[in-house]
Amino acid sequence: MSFSRIPRRLVHHRCCLTTHSNSPPTVDSALETISQRNPSLNAFVTSRVPAELAETAVADGPLKGWPVGIKANIATVSNSDTDVTSCGSHALQSYKSPFQATVVDALERAGAVVMGKTNMDEFGMGSKNTYSIYGPARNPHTSEPQDKDPCQIYDRSPGGSSGGSAAAVASNMCRAALGSDTGGSVRLPAAWCGIVGFKPSYGRISRYGLVPYGSSLDTVGIMARSVQDVQQVFQAVSRPDTRDMTCMTELLRSRINMGSQSRPWAARLLSQNDMEAEKPLAGIRIGIPRECWVEELSASALDAWKQGAERLSALGCEIVAVSLPHLSNALPAYYTLALAEASSNLARYDGVRYGLRKEPGNRGPKNLDASRKYAETRSQGLGAEVQRRILLGTYVMSDAACRHFYLPSQRIRRVIQTEFDSVFALPNALSSEAFEKTLLDWASGGRSAGVDALLFPTATDTAPPLLEGREENTAASYVNDVMTVPANLAGIPAISVPVGHKDRMPIGLQLAAQYGDDELLLQIARYLGA
Fold it and tell me: Is 185 a catalytic residue?
């Protein structure tokens, strides 16, 4: 692969920040849009009625009056009988959470108004939002002319597993929405629906109240129509939480902030000074990973990637090629680890403590065994894709398979994390010795050799037709995550930004940065969008 086709410098052009001409939705306009468009898009699976919203006390905060959607695997509490945390599954179809997720509490304290729960692949397992008991959500974008019957227009996948959240934001049913990102479930739908999708660093946002899929990979993500809106939501919900042992402590956050602010070349951008300068990204170095130039990458995605690099170069960035040699191993390692964790996490859905409970049809002596009751409950409560992943994960954790698959995948994960650390200028704040040494070098006027962010496609192509969500070769659908899973394995922040269209369908590019460097990543992303 050659990067000579991506120029280091181009004729300068002014790049507008990522904004949309449409005015942001209010609660009233969102309610009207939900009533008009949700029957066709199936983005919300439950929504609060006007009477309930009228009784809701709205806090006076930075998000006052913002209508927001919440993915159906994030716990919420309300007086409505329909407010269930179902995870898109029969197993939890009637489950009302007794507590509310920390991230939802933070939104409401900031003044946001929860409009309802959004559609998703069952337990977050899917990339096209077709594995849901509510039926598939639909992409509000279409490649067909708009003079056809509405029921025939919306035939494209919104992506998964947070497809409902993406479709809701893209169609103005809410101003922002929460999703969960285990292997790209926020960024892939954002790219296919033409919105911004942000996966923060692992631990930046509390996972308390998020139904787990892969606990070491799960991250609460944010979707909105602009990077600025994502930033505002992120600032409201990124807080320490003692109820989540994986959430960053205040001490670690302070350490990260100190290192981030110590870079002389990034200080101006982080302080948001001179944002209207001719080259506002001067001094920022962007890396282009060679290994992301994969065979499956479509011509439109490749063109968007080149144009994105050109845009950042024109705004002052230095564009360099970097190598992450083991990135090609990320997808198999991810699915090995994610399914192993899923088999453990989903063992709780046995019908004993909560959720669906089914008894064997034949009440004979053999069926009185508890394991048969569990089997009947899980067979009827869990969908085919969830059962498939549980079985694979259980096998991976068996004695022989653990040595041959699980442990090597953990080693590959560590290698990938180390390779990401090696290409970034900012050292990993979890590595004390390297972190302190680099800060001393910067204090003496030095400049690290690494990059500040990486740029690569979010998806290999635009949104596929929904009918493709049921292909017999299930493994083929897993390839949709090839560009997104590395960030989850490394725990680093990544954001997908819309940059163009092909045949009326959106195309997204992805930026990723060092662990904890979320603020700089968001600032760079503001300049990337079309």
Answer: yes
